Amino acid sequence: AIRKLHQKSITQIESLAKLMEIATCYLEITKMIQIDEDNLILHLSNYINDNIRTELSVESIMERFRISRCRLYEISHKYFSMSIAKYIRHKRVMIAAEQLQKKGVRINEAAEYAGFTDYNYFSKVVHLIPLNPYPKVLQGILQLKECNKAYFVCL
């Protein structure tokens, strides 16, 4: 096998060495970008959790992290498997569901606690969240017609 190897010139060897160096630099840079992105997603997740009950919007997140809408949606799809707005809605519905499991909590109170300023919007959003299966608390919301003033009873 050694006899079949063709001899390379110094220029070819130097060129190959330079290509290997470039490839190594590329791998190091992409690793650094990945570390930076992991750090960003950690901060993003913490920021959403800390501010979920406030007027949290895509614009406020873009401003806070100084990233573009496109980049924000790219990251959210990569790490949350959904848009950032859907992720926030999903988290809010889950917080409301936790609140509704407490005795004597009204549906509109749970919705407000979770950051929904409009009860009617909350009742529509519950239908849009793909939970499989729905927690029993949310099943009750889906079945109730006039529930804004009623207390919720866990099923």
In short:
The chain is an all-alpha fold and 155 residues long.
What do these coordinates show?
Mean pLDDT is 76; it is low at 131-135 and 141-155. With 155 residues, the protein is an all-alpha fold. The longest helix has 42 residues, at 10-51. Helices cover 67% and strands 0% of the residues.
Unreliable sequence segments = 131-135, 141-155
Head-to-tail CA distance between termini: 76 Å
- What is the chain-wise order of helices and strands? HHHHHHH
Biggest sheet: strands, sense, closure?
A: none
Give the overall form.
rod-shaped
| Overall average pLDDT | 76
Count of individual helical segments:
7
SSE-based structural type: mainly alpha
The fraction of residues in strands falls at: under 5%
CA radius of gyration: 26 Å
Helix content: 55-70%
In total, the number of strands is: 0
Mind sketching the topology for me?
Layout: H1 10-51, H2 58-65, H3 69-80, H4 84-100, H5 107-113, H6 119-128, H7 136-143
Helix pairs in contact: 4-5
List the defining traits of the structure above.
7 helices; disordered C terminus; 155 residues
